[in-house]
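> tool_call: predict_assembly(chains=four)
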Amino acid sequence: MALQSERSLDQTDWKILRELQKDARLSYNELGRRVGLSAPATAERVRKLEDAGIITSYGAQVEVTKLGLPLLVFIQLRCFPDHCLFKTSSAEKFPEILEMYKLSGNYCALLKVALSSMEHLEAFTERLSFYGEQTTNVVTSNLFSQQVIDWEKPEVNLRPSTQQGWDKRKR
Amino acid sequence: MALQSERSLDQTDWKILRELQKDARLSYNELGRRVGLSAPATAERVRKLEDAGIITSYGAQVEVTKLGLPLLVFIQLRCFPDHCLFKTSSAEKFPEILEMYKLSGNYCALLKVALSSMEHLEAFTERLSFYGEQTTNVVTSNLFSQQVIDWEKPEVNLRPSTQQGWDKRKR
DNA sequence: ACTGAAATGGTCATCAT
DNA sequence: ATGATGACCATTTCAGT
């Protein structure tokens, strides 16, 4: 029933998305109060957003620094043709890798990696050297992360092909 | 309540962290069932993890592609000394920027940016050119993201030189 | 989408280890 | 210091409107 397939989101949907991105553990009661809906109606909206694949999951954000991983690095990887990290699907063997992207350009992959120490970094890059050439950059400060997606003109953004740019954001 | 319990995380804490990273909306009842604790005890553990700053927030994960932002790019920025993006604190004016890191190496910053179209990318890089020289790479596929922090051998990975216990503070 | 009732979950005081 | 239990209150869910 959520499949009014290409219905675009209304203001209430966007409010729900904003609130749930900021606090996924809100009760439907409180969430409904904030968006101006009753709890059952709110729950139904959220269920539709989940079914539509717009909300994919709810996750606790953890501070890796406090879990003994004070070092965050980005590694650009140019894979060797015969040992590509993707094709061997060995990424699972590296729990240090938080995110992995395939990129256009000179390097075939970008890795975001959390590490416990310089020794750990050394051991990790050594292990990774089997797969390709690396360029490593250490994060010296994290200016911000996981900004909430919350646009002012969703109806524009939902139809990228037919629009002029969109430069404004809510509030 | 213990102010000085400088203890590190036990297996139950790790189970809680794993479950909450996978589903932040679990009830304490269900979470407690999974980790083998009563609901109040589970709630107390979670509260301590929050107070210790280990769990920083709970967020709904949204699929930016379905919100009209099919283009994900990384931009390396070498700021002009006089117009550094950090010092002018103009990053707020760019809702397209999802994450921003200060990096060691040739480039002073790495931006992760979500965009609605090629035209949008063009307009964005044009606006950003005021701040510094850019190198842009488009993400062609996202191999994985936000891997759950859940080490097989926490006793190894959890001991950097400075293990941080929990500092508790009252709510 | 709202209301109201039944089921479930959260919180607190208390007790036990 | 931490966990369990039970009472009480809040929230979720489902019916009917």
